TrEMBL record:
Keyword Transferase listed: yes
PANTHER family the UniProt entry points to: PHOSPHATIDYLINOSITOL 4-PHOSPHATE 5-KINASE 6, PHOSPHATIDYLINOSITOL-4-PHOSPHATE 5-KINASE
PIPK domain span: 1-88
MF (Gene Ontology): 1-phosphatidylinositol-4-phosphate 5-kinase activity; ATP binding
Entry annotated with the keyword Transferase: yes
UniProt organism field: Punica granatum
Record keywords: ATP-binding, Kinase, Nucleotide-binding, Transferase
Protein known as: 1-phosphatidylinositol-4-phosphate 5-kinase
GO cellular component: plasma membrane
Length: 92
């Protein structure tokens, strides 16, 4: 399959418990549905200017510098490319 060409996908219906706890992902029900997956890239429109450099410096104090979104463009592109290769596995 190639990206952008009718990519079949399925999603499973999940149900969240109502016990007062916050639950990000519900319990699987086994009900499967055909879905359309849309993938967009908008970060190419973002400049890595002084405000992004300051954001990176500030967030690096609080979090792992490689895990935050405001990183050097070369590091960002490497991380993005690695992510794409992990998610869209070549059919063998």
């Amino acid at each position: 399959m190639r990206l952008g060409i009718n990519v079949p996908a399925k999603a499973e219906l999940t149900v969240r418990r109502c016990d007062g706890e916050s639950q990000l992902v519900g319990e699987p029900t086994g009900e499967m549905y055909d879905v359309v997956v849309t993938f967009g890239i908008i970060d190419i429109l973002q400049d890595y200017d002084i405000s992004k450099k300051l954001e990176h410096a500030y967030k690096s104090i609080q979090y792992d510098p490689t895990s935050i979104s405001a990183v050097d463009p070369k590091q960002y592109s490497r991380r993005f490319r690695d992510f794409i290769f992990r998610i869209f596995v070549e059919d063998t």
